[in-house]
Fold this protein.
Amino acid sequence: MRSIINEKNLKNKKILLRLDLNVPLDRGEITDTTRIDKILPTLDFLIKEKAKIIILSHVGRPKGKIVKELSLEPICAELEDKLKKKVKLITKNIKEIKNRNFFNDYNEDIFILENIRFYSEEEQNDNEFAELLSNLGDIYVNDAFSCSHRAHASIYEIPKFLPSFSGLQLDLEVNALNKITSEITRPITCIIGGSKISTKINVIKNLIPKFDNIIIVGGMANNFIEYSGNSVGKSIKENNCDKIVEEIISLSKKEKCKIIYPEDVVVSKDLNGSPQNKELSEILIDEMILDIGPKTIDKITKIIDNSKTILWNGPAGYFENPDFAYGSIQIAKKIIENNKANKIFSVAGGGDTVSLLNNLNAINEFNFVSTAGGAFLEYLEGKNLPGITALN
């Protein structure tokens, strides 16, 4: 995989740049700019090299139809504001752009094509559509790691037609994930949460032989608590998962990886009720587990103190309510404390984890925070990502 950062003579070259600008929108207003902020170094580099930039991206799932609410117009305006440069939104149908020098009609150096998913050929991974797109540029750059698990035309097919490179953000993402899967500094700990254990089983199975500790929190921890013979009341849990839990415990013993799940919890009658610390044996049938308890927090923070590398994917509880965010906040604080002391290499990822860290203004306090969802998890599963394969 060649990085664009090492390329010379990019002046006046047309760079077809695939980004993931799929930011949350509320009535045309961007509510979280994290994904935009992370790709600014690549844009700044290309601007400095005096390249012409043609951005490809998507928002939402328009399924091959033009959906006005999913226009890239507000993203175009946000990029202009952050780059302090004019960014031209091209709304013309891509299939009607015949002239390779189409962009000479404008004075701008940065263009953004309207939502690439307005074309059904994008998700169909259509070869002719990819060739049509490739005709607009001299060089292709993928800086959309979070889309790279998709075999879509702008991710997988375009590299067949142009010299292709990785962007700065994609390089950072792959390097950070390599450090926690291949170039490991031990002891290494994974804190993993989420509501469904079945969606994370392959990640856990792939990490068990490589990790020293896997700490299971969130909704999926309830399956382990119930498996151990305790009631979880009306807590969120996935049904028929005993075999998965058995498989994880059995593999962890074989590979000498410790599996840790909550020893005590914080419960309430509902999501907005009063928090109450409880031992696992004390949970009532009408209560739900919404956070980890003080003994569990103490145990996790001690494991973090004894770790050199940490991966965090999934909050410890229902952090949207401050009454049940304490466990997640204490985990974040302990990782940040050790990070500042250069005692640990830390990677965090997943939508809820990123939201939590944004709430704490702590995105920059980790070595790396991934905004990728599916691609992040599939990489951790050990899968080959189509977007990375195409660049190789």
Remarks:
- The first strand starts at residue 14 and ends at 19.
